[in-house]
Amino acid sequence: MSAEDNDNDTVSICANCGREGNDVNNVCNKCKMVKYCNAACKKKHRHKHKQDCEEHIRLAAKRAAELHDEKLFKEPPIINEDCPICFVRLPSLDSGWKYMPCCGKVICNGCAYAPIYDNQGNEVDSEKCPFCRTPWPESNEEGVKRGEKRIEVGDAQAMLSLGRCYHEGTNGFRQDYNKAFELWHRAAELGLTRAYCSVGYSYEHGEGVERNKKKANYYFELGAMEGDVNARYNLGNIEEKAGNMNRALKHFMIAVRAGDNKSLDTIKELYSDGYATKEDYMKALQSYQVYLGEIKSAQRDKAAATREDCRYY
């Protein structure tokens, strides 16, 4: 027997008069938990049902909040894949990788700025994309034009990057919060995890859109549950400011495991102020060291120590 057959065989009972039948389907508009023969029975039973109705609503809201927290504080997936060149896990923060508007790839800074060698081990022209070998753009403007072409083919990361140009007023763009929000929102609709935090930031500060803390929190939660450390850090700050230290600590601990050094510093402060234990802080330090080990490479260390910031896009 199918689930549909079981549903069809279920007989409802009127909470007022006790009549049974499949036609007893007038549901309480508030709690949705009891049924009546008709509107007359519903009205007659309203006074008796009021207390139970409120309790049903309270329990349903409590359970919904519990389920939401289970999902919110569940260990999220790793947002970044491995670098497509060196195959080492990409850093979680923007400062550790570079978006290539020529081919749409995200590669680590170690590969972005490392010398390029031919099959005989001779260093060759390194002024090219390490992945697709397209020459570096000669200016920021040329880099942006490449990014705009990527947007035309639906590249969400290009939308996020160009949105930052508008938001900060860089690379020859005038500052335009409206345009930045539009691009970020498009990227979020395409499912780019990093874009959720940017959309939330716009709602939080009222930049390019009317300020709305509820929507800001909604997008921060979307990003956090998908593994974005900046979104997770923002949620921790929101909870800390509200005085919900246990919830704040949970957010910061998750962010640290994903490589957020700001959250590690905040946990240290919480420990100093008595809101986190020594064990909490030690776990955070250990988690951060594990993360550093996963993303470490000699090539990345060398790039971080020697390169100049030449991010075109």
Describe the structure.
- There is one protein chain.
- The chain has 313 residues and is mostly helical.
- It folds into three domains: 3-59, no CATH class; 81-134, no CATH class; 135-303, Serine Threonine Protein Phosphatase 5, Tetratricopeptide repeat (Alpha Horseshoe), CATH 1.25.40.
- It is 56% helix and 6% strand.
- It is built from 13 helices and eight strands.
- It has helices at 3-9, 39-72, 109-112, 140-152, 156-168, 177-189, 193-205, 213-225, 229-241, 245-257, 261-272, 278-295, 298-306; strands spanning 12-13, 20-21, 26-27, 35-36, 97-100, 105-108, 116-117, 123-124.
- It has a two-stranded antiparallel sheet. The protein has a two-stranded antiparallel ribbon with strand order 3-4.
- Helix 8 (213-225) packs across helix 9 and helix 10 packs antiparallel against helix 11.
- The longest helix is centred in the N-terminal third of the chain and has 34 residues, at 39-72.
- 34% of the residues are buried.
Number of separate helices: 13
Classify the secondary structure makeup into a structural class.
Answer: mainly alpha
- The proportion of residues in beta strands is 5-15%
Poorly predicted runs are 1-8, 308-313
CATH class of the largest domain: Mainly Alpha
Can you name the CATH architecture of the largest domain? Answer: Alpha Horseshoe
Estimate nothing, just give the exact number of structural domains.
3
- Percent helix among the residues? 55-70%
Shape: elongated
Q: CATH superfamily name of the largest domain?
A: Tetratricopeptide repeat domain
User: Can you tell me the CATH topology of the largest domain?
Assistant: Serine Threonine Protein Phosphatase 5, Tetratricopeptide repeat
Strand order of the largest sheet: 1-2
| Mean pLDDT, all residues | 89
Number of strands: 8
Distance between the termini: 59 Å
